[in-house]
Design a protein that fits this description.
Radius of gyration: 22 Å
CATH superfamily of the largest domain: NAD(P)-binding Rossmann-like Domain
Strand order of the largest sheet: 3-2-1-4-5-6-7
Oligomer: single chain
Number of helices: 15
Structural class: alpha/beta
Bound molecules: nicotinamide-adenine-dinucleotide
Shape: globular
Distance between the termini: 26 Å
CATH class of the largest domain: Alpha Beta
Number of domains: 3
CATH architecture of the largest domain: 3-Layer(aba) Sandwich
CATH topology of the largest domain: Rossmann fold
Strand content: 15-25%
Length: 450
């Protein structure tokens, strides 16, 4: 469903009216277009501590325009406030901040940039996870980055985003994948997130096809977010297997044919679903995306057992049972990537969605609990928690709630299926084993559960 308010707010009359009345003024976000090669089309500014130099050495693969401010990374041109170009991407390494006094570096670095950002600019702050630091003052300084970055993300305008990445020991050499995602339009609808990276043994070898040679299964792939995930994984070089219920067969087969993939019609709640899947995947699987999901909304007072059971069965029980069976049978190969489609309802709760929110929170808990046990096989498991995404599922929400869902975020609009798909495609990469047991929100920094 198209968002007519964005069209209105971006017309010349609408822009003036929205400004005069102080209404939300969402901009059209820049998104990744087919055929694009460079993650950053514009100036990248690098500053801060010891990781800045390391980033400047890989930055030439991201953009032609590399600038530094406050430090002198060897491969960068000095950026002068008021004279340097407008910035499309910014990375500030705050990993060496250890005292309250040093936090002023954040203000000193970012303040001059605020009026020099291009449309849909992407900003990153790098730090060290506070829980890994012994010195309480250093841990406190690093934790302060979280409050700073989430607040600054809310102050950004014109579709700009900002995230904080805590870089763990051994993860310093693996920043290219996260930078390619978080500094490019692939992360257009991700903002205000805190991400933890650890070491990972596997790497992407060809950035034009980061999923080449990988086999991916996407459930609920006939339409909406699942269809977009299948398309994006195929774009990135994966061999895709699309699964959906038998009534969706014709749409599923048409999409599978277009993507050069294979279709499996199967109800993931069927008693023999695990056996059928194992039989149909004799060569194993590298990427498993549990996207199929349903809503059956009612307040708890009116919740029927059927509504409760159906949502828990599809959204939570089936991903648990199928993942375990695919792991136990060896179908899921070493270094596999498992991605569970959760929801911000599972983080914030939502009136009328006790069943749905329980199922989605359960998926986040599943990723957190399972991840440490899969580390020795190099397998990662994560949840992706979308906010309001424009699909058939959200088109059925009553108008008032739909508008609230769209506007109650820093970006002031709903996301597109492509936004969720890009996040899934990043997590599916070989190098993304550095990110596991976490929930990545794709919600435009929704105020819900933030
Ligand atoms: N749209 C949003 O705003 C939003 C927000 C947060 C989370 N999500 C989650 O993202 C996922 C995709 O959402 P969507 O909006 O594209 O939904 P959708 O309803 O458009 O598509 C879901 C797909 O899952 C399939 N499916 C349902 N039950 C199945 C079963 N038992 N076996 C196999 N396939 C089954 C459906 O046939 C459908 O093709 C869901 O898990 C949803 O909960 C969506």
């Amino acid at each position: 469903m198209s968002d007519r308010y964005i069209d209105f707010a971006n017309s010349s009359f609408g822009h003036r009216l929205v400004g005069a009345l102080g209404l939300p003024s969402p901009v059209r976000l820049e998104r990744w277009q087919a055929g694009r090669l460079r993650p950053i089309e514009g100036a990248l500014l690098i500053g801060g501590g010891p990781l800045a130099e390391r980033i400047s050495t890989l930055a030439s693969r991201l953009t032609d325009g590399i600038y530094s401010y406050g430090t002198e990374p060897s491969m960068a041109t000095a950026w002068i406030p008021g004279h340097g170009p407008k910035l499309k991407a910014v990375v500030f390494d705050a990993s060496d901040l250890q005292h309250t006094d040093q936090l002023k570096q954040l203000r000193e670095f970012f303040q001059p940039l605020m009026k020099n950002l291009e449309h849909s600019a992407h900003l990153l702050i790098l730090g060290r996870a506070p829980e890994t630091l012994r010195d309480p003052f250093a841990a406190s300084a690093q934790r302060a980055l979280e409050g700073f970055s989430r607040s600054l993300a809310k102050e950004l305008r014109s579709g700009a985003t900002l995230q904080l990445i805590y870089v763990g020991d051994g993860a310093e050499d693996q920043l290219e994948g996260p930078l390619r995602f978080f500094l490019s339009p692939k992360s257009a609808f991700v903002s205000g997130q805190v991400i933890r990276l650890s070491a990972c043994a596997t790497q992407v070898s060809d950035w034009t096809r980061p999923l080449a040679g990988r086999k991916a299964l996407v459930t609920g792939a006939a339409r909406g977010i699942g269809a977009s995930i299948a398309e994006t994984l195929a774009r990135d070089g994966a061999e895709v297997i699309l699964l959906d219920v038998p009534p969706a067969k014709s749409d599923l087969e048409a999409l599978a044919a277009r993507l050069g993939g294979r279709a499996i019609t199967l109800d993931i709640c069927a008693d023999d679903a695990a056996t059928q899947l194992i039989e149909q995947l004799p060569d194993g699987l590298d990427i498993l995306v549990h996207n199929a999901g349903i809503t059956r909304d009612k307040t708890l007072a009116n919740m029927t057992p059927e509504f409760w059971d159906a949502v828990l069965a599809v959204n939570l029980n089936a991903p648990q049972v199928l993942t375990k069976a695919l792991l136990d049978s060896g179908t899921l190969r070493d270094n596999a990537r498992v991605i569970l489609l959760a929801s911000i309802s599972g983080i914030a709760g939502n009136r009328g969605q006790t069943n749905y929110a329980a199922s989605k929170a359960g998926l986040i808990g599943l990723a957190q609990a399972w991840a440490p046990t899969l580390l020795d096989r190099g397998i990662s498991i994560n949840a992706v928690a979308p906010g309001f995404i424009e699909t058939q599922m959200t088109a059925h929400i009553p108008f008032g709630l739909r508008e609230a869902g769209r506007r109650m975020s820093s970006l002031g609009q709903g996301g597109l299926p492509q936004d969720v798909a890009e996040a899934v495609a990043w997590l599916a990469q070989p190098g993304s084993g550095a990110f596991t047991g976490q929930a990545l929100r794709v919600c435009g920094q929704s105020v819900l559960g933030a």
